[in-house]
Design brief:
Chain lengths: ~130, ~130
DNA sequence: TGCCGTACCCACCTTGAGGTAACCATGAAA
DNA sequence: TTTCATGGTTACCTCAAGGTGGGTACGGCA
């Protein structure tokens, strides 16, 4: 069974990009793996409806207000969530995932599922390594 | 077109894991997005042959010796690369990707390709956001 | 004797992520 | 008039990633 990733194809996609665009790609992917990004996005997507800031704070357990604000601003800037402010008192702000975010989550999903279904292999590999080095 | 991620399925996979296993999954995915990990793995996979440390340093442009060593140790510990030391002078060490690493790269590939083919959308979203906030 | 090349390790420093806690603006309710 | 709720901002702290520049081990070679 020959196993060969088509990195040529990836390169083809990347070579069309200038240096800025290439680092943007890297940045997007990297941000996805930052501490709260994926979790926040997943909660918003799961709700399938606009969600207020404070509700999101409850759902994304352990996130600080500062971090959540920052993550949401970044996601908004990248067009992955929409932010709607209602001119009320007390203020009301609603967040929601965009189509493009859902597209992305669909690609992240299999990777995540694969990782969690292979946890055993990783534990075994680590145990073996640690024993060798003991 | 109803777009709905099956987070229930993800949860099902995750709920079977205890807390340690869950955080391991998170750790694996997070490490993938660290600065040099994916690039290193991709170079090794692309070579499709054992590669020496110094050759890898050349290919992964800009990585420091310290960082490359660390990344390789972690990948080795997780069973994603093999490390073979030849008892020679000067020393010779060969690295190579494992089957499981290739499996993983196949899942990362579509995500990466999608991100790079949507760079334009992200740039546009950012430009629009920055203009609004100007 | 002393330097070379490989693949490291270690000490030190800068940078940025992310936490805590305090403060702010607003108008309705008490 | 004071209080409250919401969605922030800001100052300050800690911790860890990651870079730089040095040292190390080894035998071969001049």
């Amino acid at each position: 069974m020959k196993r060969h990733i088509d990195w040529v194809e990836v390169n083809a996609a990347c070579e069309a990009l200038d240096e800025n665009e290439d680092s943007l790609t890297r940045e997007i992917v990297t941000r996805l793996a930052e501490k709260w990004t994926l979790w926040t996005l997943a909660e918003l997507a799961a709700a399938d409806a606009p969600m207020r800031f404070s509700r999101l704070m409850e759902r994304v357990e352990g996130v600080s207000q500062k971090s959540l604000t920052k993550v949401l601003r970044q996601l908004e800037r990248d067009g992955l969530v929409t932010r709607v402010v209602f001119a009320q008192v007390p203020p009301r702000v609603e967040y929601q995932t965009t189509e493009i975010a859902l597209e992305m989550l669909e690609l992240v999903h299999p990777l995540w599922a694969w990782a969690s279904s292979n946890v055993g292999k990783f534990q075994a590999a680590r145990a073996a390594y640690d024993k060798r080095r003991k």
